[in-house]
Amino acid sequence: MPTPTYDKIATQTVSGSATNITFSSIPGTYRDLILVCQGITSTTTQAWIRFNNDSSNIYNFTNASAIAAGTYSAFVLATQFRFANRVEFSASERVIAIIQILDYAQTDKHKVVLSRTSRNDGSELQTSRYESTSAISSILIDQEVSASFSDGSVFTLYGLVS
């Protein structure tokens, strides 16, 4: 079996501040997508993702987190999915999230998303499902409250070549 490789599709580095980050015109030529987020925000906030600008109530996620305040788990159905639910982006520290979007270009199945998020006081694992058979061609990364990603935050999208 060949070793999978990662092609960098795009990188966005925040200069100044940005209220959200969008990757659009994503080519459908890869098996999976890997999104790496290294961010700092202007205020403590929870980050979320929406695919194809779809705000339907068809995103569900289950998460488990271990943070300084204790452990947490939940199942949620929403109009987007959070990838930093209890491990919040903070104005004082860099949060790192690695998000894998499986079979993103397939049109015969729902999309499964696996994410791992960490910061100084904890970490979170999450599985998510986007209940759509549409291929994913855009990703919006936003925040739950009025906040902005701070200068130097970096978001990189990779395609997994198999």
What would your notes on this structure say?
The protein is mainly beta and 162 residues long. It has one domain (5-161): Sandwich (Jelly Rolls), CATH 2.60.120. The chain is built from no helices and 14 strands. It has strands at 5-13, 17-18, 21-23, 32-39, 45-51, 59-67, 70-78, 81-89, 95-102, 111-119, 122-130, 139-143, 149-150, 154-161. It has an eight-stranded antiparallel beta sheet, with no helix packed on it.
Summarize the model shown.
By secondary structure, the chain is mainly beta.
Could you outline the blueprint of secondary structure elements for this entry?
Layout: E1 5-13, E2 17-18, E3 21-23, E4 32-39, E5 45-51, E6 59-67, E7 70-78, E8 81-89, E9 95-102, E10 111-119, E11 122-130, E12 139-143, E13 149-150, E14 154-161
Specify the CATH class. Answer: Mainly Beta
**Domains (count):** 1
String of helices and strands:
EEEEEEEEEEEEEE
Question: Average pLDDT across residues?
Answer: 84
Low-confidence stretches: none
As for the CATH topology, it is Jelly Rolls
The largest beta-sheet arranges its strands as: 1-14-4-9-10-11-6-7
Number of helices: 0
Tell me which CATH architecture applies here. Answer: Sandwich
Radius of gyration: 15 Å
Keywords:
single chain; 162 residues; mainly beta; Jelly Rolls; eight-stranded antiparallel sheet; four-stranded antiparallel sheet; 14 strands; 60% strand; globular
